């Protein structure tokens, strides 16, 4: 959604690179480009004016003028201000101290409230809660049925005593939504559900009658949270809608739906700043798992193409099989060969994390390769899996035995060309070599003293190339004294290091003259007189 804004901001910051000092004209030009980028992204004009004003004020202050890298300092300022207009800190659901936590959903019709109710319930269930959905949208045809289907997919019970309106009875909705909401809370208490999510009716516009109905439901159930669900693609009208709902039902938090759309996304940057209410959740896809807690700092990092590695790590921790990870860690420690079976298991683990495109877009600098990522075919993983599964168990363990005839057989079995089998085996061979080096504790080539690089050969090479010990003095008396001193040390079994041992010479007399030191410095070290 923020691709266009991210591209514009990234291009703006590139113009500042390499400048050791920023003039007022540089700052004004940068702020002007940021203003244009935000306005093009449909961010509300008051928000743009306030945002760029703060950025300009900070950019012209000592914060940037005294920085070693002014361009990076500008990026830091923009990042901090983006975090601020997105809500500042991550806001979580306030749970009730006694009784069930009541969450009421409100918003326009078509914003995605019913689907989001299922996503939120599944998310809460994964957090260890026992949620229940209450169908209070008795206005829209088949809304109750839709909520029941969503609840079934999420594995969450739905309280729906009335079927609601049907396509043949649009003007006569069945039941009172206020009574249904009140009964739903009582049912949750009776059945010991600790969270109640009330799905209310939407409206095509800011309808006074429907808003009054929402207010009555709010007064009847006294919710702990009132979440305003807003379509992220709504554009400039998002601010007016949000302010109307805030005045009508006094919502406590915002949920952004359809954040995976291709619109410009100004609503996400405007609503929190204008209403003063935090964005709490974001819906990022059509699946029930495409739902996440909203972190303003991480969203700002995504917009500025700095990635969102923390969310990526959280997804990996949630979906990664700990037993499989422990098995691979043990195999890695024992320096066992990395096989195609291991490769297949790791690939399945990655698939469990979700879409590869979404994961790669969370990496820093992903905007630079966005076109390649958009062209990436998720089915490529299916083809690779089919190739590996077409091999025999022995071939997966010892891929070197796969000759031409075997490759042709594998290609026929997996429905691909032989060239694709060849490419996979070549990439696997490279990965296997890299895994062997890492398992051996190897470092990068050319780094002396790193473990695994020739078994400590770096230290031996250093010993071989060390300068030879200086011959004893040609003065007979001095040479004899040196010999007596050496014999005395050997006889006493002296273990003390000779002068200069701290430089790494573990044996023999150290002569500072062997080092390329300034004239007279050898006397300071206690060397030859």
From TrEMBL:
<dbReference type="InterPro" id="IPR003593">
    <property type="entry name" value="AAA+_ATPase"/>
</dbReference>
<keyword id="KW-0378">Hydrolase</keyword>
<feature type="binding site">
    <location>
        <begin position="199"/>
        <end position="203"/>
    </location>
    <ligand>
        <name>GTP</name>
    </ligand>
</feature>
<keyword id="KW-0963">Cytoplasm</keyword>
<keyword id="KW-0733">Signal recognition particle</keyword>
<dbReference type="Pfam" id="PF02881">
    <property type="entry name" value="SRP54_N"/>
</dbReference>
<dbReference type="Pfam" id="PF00448">
    <property type="entry name" value="SRP54"/>
</dbReference>
<keyword id="KW-0547">Nucleotide-binding</keyword>
<dbReference type="InterPro" id="IPR004780">
    <property type="entry name" value="SRP"/>
</dbReference>
<protein>
    <recommendedName>
        <fullName>Signal recognition particle protein</fullName>
        <ecNumber>3.6.5.4</ecNumber>
    </recommendedName>
</protein>
<dbReference type="InterPro" id="IPR013822">
    <property type="entry name" value="Signal_recog_particl_SRP54_hlx"/>
</dbReference>
<feature type="domain" description="SRP54-type proteins GTP-binding">
    <location>
        <begin position="278"/>
        <end position="291"/>
    </location>
</feature>
<keyword id="KW-0342">GTP-binding</keyword>
<feature type="compositionally biased region" description="Basic residues">
    <location>
        <begin position="461"/>
        <end position="472"/>
    </location>
</feature>
<dbReference type="InterPro" id="IPR000897">
    <property type="entry name" value="SRP54_GTPase_dom"/>
</dbReference>
<feature type="binding site">
    <location>
        <begin position="257"/>
        <end position="260"/>
    </location>
    <ligand>
        <name>GTP</name>
    </ligand>
</feature>
<dbReference type="InterPro" id="IPR022941">
    <property type="entry name" value="SRP54"/>
</dbReference>
<comment type="subunit">
    <text>Part of the signal recognition particle protein translocation system, which is composed of SRP and FtsY.</text>
</comment>
<keyword id="KW-0687">Ribonucleoprotein</keyword>
<feature type="compositionally biased region" description="Basic and acidic residues">
    <location>
        <begin position="481"/>
        <end position="490"/>
    </location>
</feature>
<dbReference type="InterPro" id="IPR036891">
    <property type="entry name" value="Signal_recog_part_SRP54_M_sf"/>
</dbReference>
<dbReference type="Pfam" id="PF02978">
    <property type="entry name" value="SRP_SPB"/>
</dbReference>
<comment type="function">
    <text>Involved in targeting and insertion of nascent membrane proteins into the cytoplasmic membrane. Binds to the hydrophobic signal sequence of the ribosome-nascent chain (RNC) as it emerges from the ribosomes. The SRP-RNC complex is then targeted to the cytoplasmic membrane where it interacts with the SRP receptor FtsY.</text>
</comment>
<dbReference type="InterPro" id="IPR042101">
    <property type="entry name" value="SRP54_N_sf"/>
</dbReference>
<keyword id="KW-0694">RNA-binding</keyword>
<feature type="binding site">
    <location>
        <begin position="107"/>
        <end position="114"/>
    </location>
    <ligand>
        <name>GTP</name>
    </ligand>
</feature>
<feature type="region of interest" description="Disordered">
    <location>
        <begin position="448"/>
        <end position="529"/>
    </location>
</feature>
<dbReference type="InterPro" id="IPR004125">
    <property type="entry name" value="Signal_recog_particle_SRP54_M"/>
</dbReference>
<dbReference type="InterPro" id="IPR027417">
    <property type="entry name" value="P-loop_NTPase"/>
</dbReference>
<feature type="compositionally biased region" description="Gly residues">
    <location>
        <begin position="448"/>
        <end position="460"/>
    </location>
</feature>
<comment type="similarity">
    <text>Belongs to the GTP-binding SRP family. SRP54 subfamily.</text>
</comment>
